[in-house]
Amino acid sequence: MKYLMIMWGAAIVYLVVGIYAMNKKEPMRLSFVSRLTEDMVSDIPAYNKEVGKMWCAFSGVLFAGGILIAWNPAFAVFFFAIFCVVGIGGTVWWQSKIEERFITEPDK
Q1: 49 has pLDDT over 90
Q2: Could you read off the pLDDT of 93-107 as tens digits, one per residue?
Q3: Each residue's pLDDT tens digit, 52-95
Q4: Residue pair 80/64 in contact by the 8 Å Cβ criterion
Q5: CA 102, CA 53: separation in Å to the nearest integer?
Q6: Burial class (CB in 10 A: 0-12, 13-18, 19+), 72
Q7: Cβ pair 41, 30 in contact under 8 A
């Protein structure tokens, strides 16, 4: 039961971040250290929608992992651990693809 709460708790956080990103007026940054400004993004609403989709997709994976707990708790814990490792790489890859489409060099 505690694994279900962990996975679905994380899924809810990811879902909220995704919805927030989709509705944000300024560009959504992946971290607090990035220096993303409005003049660097070619289409802010589309950029934020893509970033929001990324967070919501990862949320769906965590919700699915929570359902696995009813079927096989040990596998669900293994699934969560794999998701944490693969999810980091997936986030970096997906974010880089989004940045390739929408991020431009600011005018100097």
Answers
A1: yes
A2: 998 899 889 988 765
A3: 999 999 999 888 888 888 788 888 888 888 888 888 888 889 98
A4: no
A5: 15
A6: exposed
A7: no
Torsion of CA 89, 95, 98, 104, to 10 degrees: -130
Distance, in Å, from the CA atom of 11 to the CA atom of 62, rounded to the nearest integer, reads: 5
What Cα–Cα distance (Å) separates residue 14 from each residue in 3, 10, 44, 72?
16, 6, 20, 24
Alpha-carbon span 105 to 108, nearest angstrom: 9
Radius of gyration of the chain (CA): 16
Distance CA 103, CA 94 (A): 14
Asked if 8 and 63 count as a contact pair (C-beta separation under 8 A), the reply is yes
